[in-house]
Write a structure and sequence with these properties.
- The chain is α/β, with parallel strands linked by helices and about 475 residues long.
- It has a domain at about 65-380: TIM Barrel.
- It contains 14 helices and 22 strands.
- It has helices spanning about 85-95, 115-125, 145-155, 175-185, 195-210, 220, 225-240, 255-265, 275-280, 300-315, 330-335, 350-360, 370-380, 465-475; strands at about 5-15, 25-35, 35-40, 50-55, 60-65, 65-70, 75, 80, 95-105, 130-135, 160, 190-195, 245, 270-275, 320, 325, 400, 405-410, 430, 435-440, 440-445, 450.
- The longest helix is centred in the middle third of the chain and has 18 residues, at about 225-240.
- Bound molecules: zinc ion.
- Zinc ion binds near residues 69, 71, 248 and 323.
- One of its GO terms (molecular function) is hydrolase activity, acting on carbon-nitrogen (but not peptide) bonds, in cyclic amides.
């Protein structure tokens, strides 16, 4: 342990989630030593000595973001996302996110779930920020329970399955049920991409037969009903097996309400949405560049977006993750005539903070504490990531300093993700990080980005209920 603390963030207003157990708001000096938060000192007291002091007077200091849903170097069919861990983690830090959770998804039937995760773990050695991983199972066989045990031993406590994408990533009902049961045994969490495959397939075929299959029609081929029916079916499987379940990228208020009802009924169910579902609506498919918005689920109607934002402001949505998927416009433009051959997914790890802050705080009247919950604290707690998501003694020194009044316009060309556009191009947003501290290192400040090199650590996660129960007894 070094004698003098490496860093003090002085005179800032420290904001935590109200669900974190730590004080929601306090004026304090944050003392950083050996990459952790050593102490919070009342701001009325003198600033402790340190190798470096950053004055955060008049600014907010929040825990670094945890992005629970990133796809790095993902291969889906014949497409591969264009970034690697060095690029994604750099962009994440620019955007105030200090931990990313990526997925080890088998690229085909030959790659096992365990191999997919171990491969990602190797690649993650290049990361600039901390990294955790989710697993994924596509089809059940007798080796899956053993593989899931190995994943749990690696600190991978969540497994994602898709109810659609027949022939690539889709898992059938038997597989989902059996994996849920294993995840209960291993104290893990089941992640679900919920869209009803038969409805999506039929609706897509119908549109193709009518010649309405180009990108302009994407939203019509994947109706809200398909998402909600799949959420309903999955909740039934989760209830039957007793499995905690987490729905990625919920895009409709109906889907969120199903989760709310299940929770009222005693189920452990969680709702995630993404910045784009809170901000962009299906009129984007009628604009000059509809290919910028090719993702699944697609953007919904303006009424749906407004209602989804209301759910977020009401606290019904637990996390906002980016679903970061870096394709560039040349990939997006190859087959805009047929959405079945387009790469779906949007770049967003760098813009998650300002887009979410603007949707929740600036436009919906949510508090900064609410924002911290969906941006940092909730993702850390629900994903059982130790020592993250809260500014308190003993936690990792992952910190973001910002002025919520500062407004900037998105300039896709000036961002740092491995692509050449942003779906949020030209939007005026609040909530841009000014200073970012990752594991005690100042990686972003007024002088720009300071590349720390491949220092990101692989973070093993705790058991789902063990972590939750431990937090209920420890507040700091
Ligand atoms: Zn995804």
């Amino acid at each position: 342990m070094s004698l003098v603390p490496e860093l003090v963030i002085a005179h800032g207003t420290v904001v935590n989630s109200r669900l974190s157990g730590a004080p929601a708001r306090q004026a304090a000096h944050i003392v950083v030593q050996d990459g952790r938060i050593a102490e919070l000192v009342d701001a009325a007291l003198p600033v402790p000595a340190a190798a470096r002091t950053i004055d955060a007077r008049g600014k907010l200091v929040i825990p670094g973001g945890i992005d629970g849903h990133c796809h790095v170097a993902q291969v889906t069919g014949r497409f591969r996302t264009l970034d690697d861990f060095a690029i994604t983690s750099t962009a994440a830090l620019w955007g105030g996110t200090t931990t990313i959770i990526d997925f080890g998804i088998p690229r085909d039937a030959q790659e096992t779930p365990l191999d997919a995760v171990l491969n990602k773990k190797r690649l993650a050695a290049e990361s600039r920020c901390d990294v955790a991983l989710h697993g994924s199972v596509i089809s059940w066989d007798e080796t899956v329970p053993w593989q899931l045990e190995q994943l749990a031993a690696e600190g991978v406590r969540s497994v994602k399955m898709y109810t659609t994408n027949r022939g690539t990533t889709m898992a059938d009902g038997d597989t989902i049920l059996k994996v849920m049961r294993e995840m209960v045994r291993l104290d893990g969490l089941t992640y679900i991409h919920a869209e009803h495959d038969a409805i999506i397939s039929d609706c897509t075929e119908q549109h193709a037969a009518d010649g309405l299959i180009s990108i302009e029609h994407l939203h019509r081929t994947r109706p809200e009903l398909a998402e909600e029916v799949s959420v309903k079916e999955t909740l039934a499987l989760a209830k039957y097996t007793g499995a905690p379940v987490y729905f990625v990228h919920q895009s409709t208020p109906g889907a969120v309400d199903l989760v709310t009802e299940a929770r009222a009924d005693g189920q452990e169910a969680y709702s995630e949405t993404c910045p784009h579902y809170l901000t962009l609506d299906d009129t984007v498919y009628g604009t000059e560049f509809p290919e910028w918005y090719a993702c699944c689920p697609p953007m919904r109607s303006p009424e749906t977006v407004a209602a989804l934002k209301e759910r977020l402001a009401a606290g019904a949505i637990h996390t906002v993750s980016s679903d970061h998927s870096c394709y560039d416009l040349s990939q997006k433009r190859e087959r805009t005539d047929d959405i079945r051959f387009m790469p779906h997914g949007l770049p967003g790890v760098e813009t998650r903070m300002p887009v979410t802050f603007t949707a929740l705080v600036t436009e919906s009247g949510g508090s900064v504490e609410d924002f911290v919950e969906v941006f940092s604290a909730g993702p850390a707690r629900i994903n059982a990531v130790p020592r993250k998501g809260t500014i308190a003694e003993g936690f990792d020194a992952d910190l973001v300093i910002f002025d919520p009044a500062e407004e900037r316009k998105v300039d896709g060309g000036a961002l740092h993700m491995g692509t050449d556009f942003s779906p949020f191009e030209g939007k005026a947003l609040n909530g841009w990080p000014a200073v970012v501290v990752s594991a005690g290192r100042v990686v972003l400040d007024g002088e720009g980005f300071h590349d720390p090199g491949p220092v990101g650590r692989y973070v093993a996660r705790n058991g789902f209920t063990a972590h939750r129960d431990a937090l209920s007894t420890v507040s700091a």
